[in-house]
Amino acid sequence: MTLVATTMPAARRPLGFQLAAAFLVLVVAGAALAPVAAPYAPDAVDFAATLSPMSPAHLLGADQSGRDLLSRILYGAQTSLIGPLALLAIASVLGVALGTAAAWWRGWVDALVSRVTDVMYAFPGLLFVVLVVAVFGNGVTTAVVALGLAYTPTIAKYTRAIAVTECAKPYIDAYRVQGMSGFTICVRYLVPNMARAIVGYLVVLFGEGLMSLATLSFLGFGAQPPSSDWGLMVKEGQAAMVQGAFLPVLVPGAAIALVVVSFNVIGVRLADRLAARRP
């Protein structure tokens, strides 16, 4: 009976989930092995191959400068994946801390956190990021920090909603009776017990973060040339569309879309399964 119970969930995984997971593994492997797997350097210019179509020499074609698109996609996956991970790390630290504090202390602390997050929600996130970039200058680091701050209210509200329910459980009162401080209870028990649900939510947000960073790079606020960031590649490839060459835009655009959809598929299923396992 135990064997049947443990093998059934794996057999019931939807085909879409399996395809999304396999694709993301392939993308991560390509990013990690880019120096070995890429046939060319990402900034290697070959004007003889300008806007080359798919061929044995250039499997995904070449851009307007003759740079191999496959090589740029592989190297660009590094910044395109690390960027969302970094911004979610910033947003998670701030958001989980604020949401947990609001749920634990309630009263004026909860009211203050709620008002701050409401103000942030009322202020368009992209506009906030543009203002930060205008003050501190363009670049991936500035864009990541700005988006991390912009995503903080979303994670704070989600964390607070979970923490309010968690704080009402008997084990919290039991630790209080034992004389544990609120900080110790939150760090050692409350936050770890919420971690599974929060992680599932962050996986869903990863795709949105990737899209946001790509948008900033497309607008010129994020990655700067000669970076092979996917959003920047889409921007640079626009000029080639006038000449009837769509690969410089289609290849990075498809990479962004497929990664975002894959993370959404995996994130939704992961969040559902983790929520179902919560005691």
TrEMBL record:
<keyword id="KW-0812">Transmembrane</keyword>
<feature type="transmembrane region" description="Helical">
    <location>
        <begin position="125"/>
        <end position="151"/>
    </location>
</feature>
<dbReference type="InterPro" id="IPR050366">
    <property type="entry name" value="BP-dependent_transpt_permease"/>
</dbReference>
<keyword id="KW-1133">Transmembrane helix</keyword>
<feature type="transmembrane region" description="Helical">
    <location>
        <begin position="81"/>
        <end position="105"/>
    </location>
</feature>
<keyword id="KW-0472">Membrane</keyword>
<keyword id="KW-0813">Transport</keyword>
<dbReference type="InterPro" id="IPR000515">
    <property type="entry name" value="MetI-like"/>
</dbReference>
<protein>
    <submittedName>
        <fullName>Peptide/nickel transport system permease protein</fullName>
    </submittedName>
</protein>
<feature type="transmembrane region" description="Helical">
    <location>
        <begin position="241"/>
        <end position="268"/>
    </location>
</feature>
<keyword id="KW-1003">Cell membrane</keyword>
<comment type="similarity">
    <text>Belongs to the binding-protein-dependent transport system permease family.</text>
</comment>
<feature type="domain" description="ABC transmembrane type-1">
    <location>
        <begin position="77"/>
        <end position="267"/>
    </location>
</feature>
<dbReference type="GO" id="GO:0055085">
    <property type="term" value="P:transmembrane transport"/>
</dbReference>
<dbReference type="Pfam" id="PF00528">
    <property type="entry name" value="BPD_transp_1"/>
</dbReference>
<feature type="transmembrane region" description="Helical">
    <location>
        <begin position="198"/>
        <end position="221"/>
    </location>
</feature>
<dbReference type="InterPro" id="IPR035906">
    <property type="entry name" value="MetI-like_sf"/>
</dbReference>
<dbReference type="GO" id="GO:0005886">
    <property type="term" value="C:plasma membrane"/>
</dbReference>
